[in-house]
């Protein structure tokens, strides 16, 4: 059961769920926008709630609410993708999407995390350009577009979605841009049917709403783990605290078998999703994990913001205990509004 001091949050979420579930449609409208805005504002403030400890009825409400949020998000993206396609230069008008600034911040966060675990050559050199897969890209693939335009300017992006209409809308947005149309590709397929192709990608991104319950999410992660090339990176979106009423949670300790979890970042500002980065294990001929040098993570405290001195280093091994969560300011946000989880290995197998 949830704690007494968390009851106001639970009560408010349940009230909003009741109102949302009564809507005749989740397509963009005044009522839909108002209710989901209230829900997001209710869940954004940091809260120590552990959704796994909620009673069964509230767990069911949470599961249903995540699916309703996913459906509404799909309608919203589809609506604005169609609207943007009516512009002569769609990519120059992305700011009409109401959450575009959030995607800019989230993509900056993900790029900074990713760049800590890749070489500058991989990022900048067209001869060794990264090949990236984004699973669950949808009709408005803003993460791929922002990363390709602003950060990973030589990388190719292979966007996977099961919905052919979503892919056709997404492809229409980038078709007018000579650079992006040559580096962004769209595949209409169930990712569970993709096998050997996953070996080709240096980085695989998994969208937050691919697998909207624990079983679905873990099934996708294990499929990706089975077919990714050893040593390559998986980036996932998760949720923390009350934000877990909006998106599914990836538990780094239990859900990422086959991967070494490198970092988990929990934003506490208007960026909703937590970001998890993990590396697929390398195995020797006896199928034992190969110990690799951990890439340095440099940080520096300056006016309450960690920016860069001091080094955290060690070895990448299969941990026998999960890492501990610590609160800190992140180097990934100039306002320092992040909680950071870093690996703290107490034992080595």
UniProtKB/TrEMBL annotation:
Entry EC number(s): 2.5.1.43
Annotated GO MF terms: nicotianamine synthase activity
Biological-process GO terms, alphabetical: nicotianamine biosynthetic process
Keyword terms, alphabetized: S-adenosyl-L-methionine, Transferase
Matches recorded under PROSITE patterns: NAS
Stated family: Belongs to the nicotianamine synthase (NAS)-like family.
Biological function: Synthesizes nicotianamine, a polyamine which serves as a sensor for the physiological iron status within the plant, and/or might be involved in the transport of iron.
Name of the featured protein: Nicotianamine synthase
Organism of provenance: Morus notabilis
